[in-house]
Specification:
The complex is a heterodimer.
Chain A lengths: L1 E3 L8 E7 L6 H5 L5 E4 L15 E4 L6 E5 L4 E5 L4 H8 L4 E2 L11 H6 L7 H4 L6 E7 L5 E4 L5 H7 L8 E8 L1 E2 L4 E9 L2 H11 L5 E6 L9 E8 L14 E2 L14 H14 L2 E6 H5 L5 E2 L10 E8 L1 H18 L7 E5 L14 E9 L3 H16 L3 E2 L9 H7 L3 H5 L9 H6 L3
Helix pairs in contact in A: 9-10
Chain B lengths: L6 E6 L4 H13 L2 E7 L2 H14 L4 E6 L5 H13 L5 E4 L7 H6 L1 H29 L3 E5 L12 H20 L6 E7 L17 H14 L3 E4 L2 H11 L2 H4 L5
Parallel strand pairs in B: 1-2, 1-4, 2-3, 4-5, 5-6, 6-7
The chains are: A alpha+beta, B alpha/beta.
Keywords (chain A): FAD, Flavoprotein
InterPro entries (chain A): FAD-bd_PCMH (IPR016166), FAD-bd_PCMH-like_sf (IPR036318), FAD-bd_PCMH_sub2 (IPR016169), FAD_lactone_oxidase-like (IPR010031), Oxid_FAD_bind_N (IPR006094)
Pfam family, one (chain A): FAD_binding_4
Amino acid sequence: MVTVSSWGRLNSSEHKVRRLFDRHRIVQQLQGRQTGIAYGMGRSYGDVCLNPHGILWNTAQLDRFIHFDANTGRLTCEAGVLLSDIQQLAIPQGWALPVTPGTRFVTVGGAIANDVHGKNHHACGSFGNHIRRLKLIRTDGTVIDCGPNFRPDWFAATIGGFGLTGVIAEAEIQLKQADSSWLEVEVLPYDRLDDFFDLADSSHTDWEYSAAWIDCLSAKNTRGVFMRANPASAAVNQPPPRNRRLSIPFTPPLSLINRLTLPLFNSAYFHINKRRTGRHLAHYQNFFYPLDTVQGWNRLYGPSGFFQYQSVVPCRWAHDAITAMLAETARYGDGSFLAVLKTFGRISAAGIMSFPQEGVTLTLDFANRGSATQRLFKRLDAIVHAADGRLYLAKDARMPRDLFGSGYPRLAEFLRYRDPGISSALSRRLIGM
Amino acid sequence: MMQSPKKRIVIIGGNSTIAEHCARLWVSGSAVDLTLVVRDRLKAESIAADLRIRNPQSVIRVREAHFTEPSAIQAVADESVDQGGVDIVLIAHGALPNQALCQQNLSLAHEALTINGVSPALFAEAFAGHMIKAGRGTLAIIGSVAGDRGRKSNYVYGAAKGLLARYTQGLQHRLAATNVKVVLIKPGPTETPMTAQLNQQLAPVKDVARCIVDGIDRGKPIIYTPAKWRWIMAVVRHLPRFIFNSLNI
Ligand SMILES: Cc1cc2nc3c(=O)[nH]c(=O)nc-3n(C[C@H](O)[C@H](O)[C@H](O)COP(=O)(O)OP(=O)(O)OC[C@H]3O[C@@H](n4cnc5c(N)ncnc54)[C@H](O)[C@@H]3O)c2cc1C
Ligand SMILES: NC(=O)c1ccc[n+]([C@@H]2O[C@H](COP(=O)([O-])OP(=O)(O)OC[C@H]3O[C@@H](n4cnc5c(N)ncnc54)[C@H](OP(=O)(O)O)[C@@H]3O)[C@@H](O)[C@H]2O)c1
């Protein structure tokens, strides 16, 4: 038994960890009477990758590249390969991941199972939109090869299927062309929520990447920093900047992010960025993965851990719903440092259970303060529900079943593809098995 | 411009996970000419494919061999000289036997002593001969912290690894006046298939490989990895027998 927790560190429980090593032997390794769940890097915040007292199939060492065609940008690899390894391999050869989340320390399998999104959803959709083929291994020994055009039903169930349809052994990804490791970035501070919506609208066609930080304590006049970027041209060819990598070596006894420190953090962050207003070049690592420079930052929230609350609401209700959620957060006081706003575009997701849908997504972090935090979530849930929105399973540790049901109306269809030998804390909490 | 010749590396037991991660570090540094000597070609081909993708300029060869037949071992070493000599040999194969079963079945004990002790020693001997003639190269052998002191739960394996410690010590003595370096690597418990059954804290294989590649680069005579094992084993080796024998380890 080994203690394992996810990124939110809300609890840590014993698991029977089985490391998967060899993609040719997964079938044998999955056999057994107890149910398990695949575990990549545990970068999900809640319980989607956990199975207390049960089996975890750790995929970290399923990490070989299988095939790469530098002419077409097609990469086939095992499911435990890290996105950081793909970027490192591909960018010097003129290719890059078409979609990447805010950390590069996640596996391909995890990125598929949560159908992760990046700052370019409006231009490129989510991770699953770029997968050409998957190999799925079921606990009964069946091996299912699927893709957008063959056995498409299995494909659509597995993309965003949070690990429940089988263990993904390998995947073929279509990378996108990248002339340089740099991006042309524009930073635009704003001080009204309306300005965010205007900026997002006007950036839609000419900017591939966009996202905004938001000061969630600034209630009425919501200030923030809007960032947008395009890949730089091949002419930009500077050596990568030397980043100092910090790390948080231990867990402080209390959350260091609290109602005393947060206004200071937020104000500092706003003013530092205000000084950077305008255009500049940024290396892809600094632009996509700013948090990766501080290893173990999740420990800052102390021993009780923290929640991330990420919702998406359709455009027609977005303004009102986000105003309401920010008002609740400001009233709660102990709000979020990493509050992010971003629009999702029209490209429809490849998975039946994928999180991204057209609209606006708001991400908020909260230290775990027990029942006070739960009461806040109830109020936020009501807003999301009323606005026909949904919460992101990769971040969830507590959503009520009715919100899950209304947010994911294709659940019944999805369950036909479920592998009965697989179960997670999240599946038992939300589906009951 | 003349291209500098590729560094030539041979890994004996090229399917080992620790060795695979060393190989990844080597190909990420520069293009190398790497031979994986293995008993099972099929498995090695997926490692070779991965390494070729990581560095398309590298040459990656797979060579099947018998690991316990002295003449086959000699042939592997001779062949690598015919191909132009070697800069680094990493002898990595090994298998963790079940101690209790070895006590009941001498063939199992024999097998374990052979594959973990005799076989790597013979590979080292065969390559050392060629390296002395060439007057260069680094010969690295993976032993184990288990070779530092025999204990009841694991002494068949430990004894074989202890054999390697003594063997490399002798080679180091013999080669002291040459430019050939002999390196003994002693990993602690590491996350690889070999330890799949162990339920304890294991070192990440990436860290272990990094330590090995750096140590080989510097020609360190003994590498403990992770480094803390140097101190832990110093204590274990020096524990008085009456205390040691009362421990259930
Ligand atoms: C700092 C930070 C920033 C982030 N930013 C973003 C962001 O911008 N956008 C976004 O979408 N997400 C973001 N995330 C969330 C993260 O991208 C997802 O949670 C991702 O799925 C984690 O991948 P993982 O490899 O750690 O998988 P895990 O968290 O270990 O597992 C996630 C799910 O994938 C399943 N799974 C893993 N491997 C396999 C496999 N081989 N076969 C089948 N199922 C498998 C698991 O069972 C589980 O259901 C962020 C997380 C962090 C910590
Ligand atoms: N992992 C640890 O905790 C640890 C600790 C201390 C020392 N070590 C040593 O580190 C070295 C590498 O091991 P690892 O951790 O990388 O484990 P591994 O991945 O299991 O590798 C062991 C390798 O040895 C090969 N092998 C085993 N028996 C063989 C035989 N009879 N003939 C030929 N080859 C044989 C295996 O080949 P196949 O793949 O073809 O089976 C395999 O490639 C070994 O010498 C081991 O003793 C490991």
